[in-house]
Amino acid sequence: MAKQITAIIVGAGHRALLYSLYALQNPEKFKIVGVADPDPIRRRKTAEMHGFGEDMCFESAEALAERPRLADAVINGTMDTQHVKTAVPLLRRGYDMLLEKPFAVNEDEMWELQRVAGETGRRVMICHVLRYAPFYVAVKERLLAGEIGDIINIQATEHVSYHHLAVSFVRGKWGNEEKCGAPMLLAKCCHDMDLIMWLKSGVAPRQVASFGSDFQFDPAKKPAGAGKRCLVDCGIEENCLYSAKKHYIDHPDRWSFYVWDCLEHLEKPTIEDKIQSLKTDNIHGRCVWDCEHTVVDHQSVAINFADGATATLNMIGGTAKAERNLHIIGTKGEIKGVFDDSVFTVRTIDTASESGWREEVVDLAIGGDKSGMTGSHGGGDLRLVEDFVRVLQGEQPSISCTNINDSLNGHLAVFQAEKARKTGTVCTMPQI
Ligand SMILES: NC(=O)c1ccc[n+]([C@@H]2O[C@H](COP(=O)([O-])OP(=O)(O)OC[C@H]3O[C@@H](n4cnc5c(N)ncnc54)[C@H](O)[C@@H]3O)[C@@H](O)[C@H]2O)c1
Questions:
Q1: How far apart are CA 239 and CA 252, in angstroms?
Q2: Does any ligand 1 atom lie closer than 6 A to the CB of residue 89?
């Protein structure tokens, strides 16, 4: 029987606790034995959830790193700008690590993490959860089987729904780049850039161009009559698509882990507690045009690869429905699909047929939570943890397995795209 892997949660937020569900579902394989987080409520809740004592609760990653190694691995779910500074001492202490994306917010940090991972020989797996979603795994398998030949072009689009945009990238934690340290392309689309690099694996990206802007939520575009807080002083709330009342009171469970995390100290917040918080200090009660919004709400990126192939990514925030589309065109055919439907078509050249082509529709028939396992990202979240555990048990990594080196190109392309967008130039990718 394979060894049980033990882990400590570092940064007991929404993401790390979600990954930790794998331990509750597979106790013989994976066990959470400790937590490090400055928030005493989160430490207590994590200890209760996984059944360990106060002696295994630490006030920070740094405090944990001062102790001898107490588990095989850590799940690092701290926020973006803390990833490298919390990861480095823990890698040096000997922990393997499941590390949230973006794993670094600039190039210097990125190289530092790569260097420390190399020096310590520890395994760092990045939470590029979409690589584990059955949709992208099935597409990758078709590519590896050579069904559409050599890739000439990849077209990826990501539509970010209006309510997701508002809660995360306008009112929420990633709306102001100066505060959160991550532009929208890094915070939201490092998955998509990673997927493009993974699908085109083995061929280096050479040049990157990019355009984008804050089309809707630039504070200068605030409509006449809008106030500072939707539930307090707004004259247009009734007709506004971004009313905090419509988003968070009419749909109190939607994005609840972001909207109501300021009420975590209450056992069961009532609707009155929620309304009061939106009226006073909850960041999600703010007018969307009064959030010091500095990130883009849409961006296009074009990439030129060493073999002459090209790729584009179009991210558009504020759509009615969230959707990721993928179209890959190769020398023998194409694959076209919608991630959210878990359906893609493989169309290949067929010189014998009257039409000149034949096609196969692949319906992964994944409904509900899209996975058969709890979690999200099309079933990717817990499949990623499963792979992490398997790798630490000494088994062969899956085709989705990320390591630092695989992920470098995706992050580098984001950094270059941001440089290209801000300077209006085409940027050359550093070669790794
Ligand atoms: N893979 C994905 O698809 C995906 C999706 C959403 C978010 N994320 C990423 O996940 C990460 C976590 O997001 P979240 O919403 O769960 O964050 P969160 O803010 O809820 O949790 C972060 C936790 O880190 C703790 N913390 C702060 N300093 C610390 C320190 N020095 N040592 C230990 N803990 C410390 C905080 O108290 C907090 O509890 C972010 O980087 C985010 O970008 C990834």
A1: 20
A2: no
Angle of helix 107-120 relative to helix 404-423, nearest 10 degrees? 170
Residue 166 and residue 64 share a domain: no
The protein residue whose alpha carbon is closest to atom 6 in ligand 1 is 15
**pLDDT confidence tier of residue 369, bands split at 50, 70 and 90:** very low
Compute the distance from residue 184 Cα to the ligand 1 centre, in Å: 16
pLDDT of residue 365: 80
d(CA 56, CA 271): 35
Same domain, 324 and 358: yes
Q: How far is the CA of 78 from the centre of ligand 1 (A)?
A: 3
Co-location of 406 and 339 in the same domain: yes
- Nearest one of 90, 101, 80 to 36, comparing CA atoms: 90
Residue with the smallest CA separation from ligand 1 atom 7 is 15
Listed residue (371, 398, 367, 382) closest to 24, CA to CA: 382
61 lines ligand 1 (CB under 6 A): yes
Residues 420 and 353 in one domain: yes
Are residues 240 and 119 part of one domain? no
Q: 59 CB less than 6 Å from ligand 1?
A: no
Whole-model pTM over 0.90: yes
Q: How far is the CA of 346 from the centre of ligand 1 (A)?
A: 38
pLDDT of residue 380: 87
| 168 Cβ inside 6 Å of ligand 1 | no
Over residues 40-82, the pLDDT tens digits come to: 999 999 999 999 999 999 999 999 999 999 999 999 999 999 9
Residue 432 pLDDT: 83
Q: Are residues 121 and 26 in the same domain?
A: yes
For tokens 């890739």, the residue is: 151
Identify the CA nearest to 244 among candidates 148, 296, 170.
170
**Mean pLDDT for the chain?**
95
What is the mean predicted confidence (pLDDT) over 263-284?
96
CATH number for the domain harbouring residue 43: 3.40.50.720
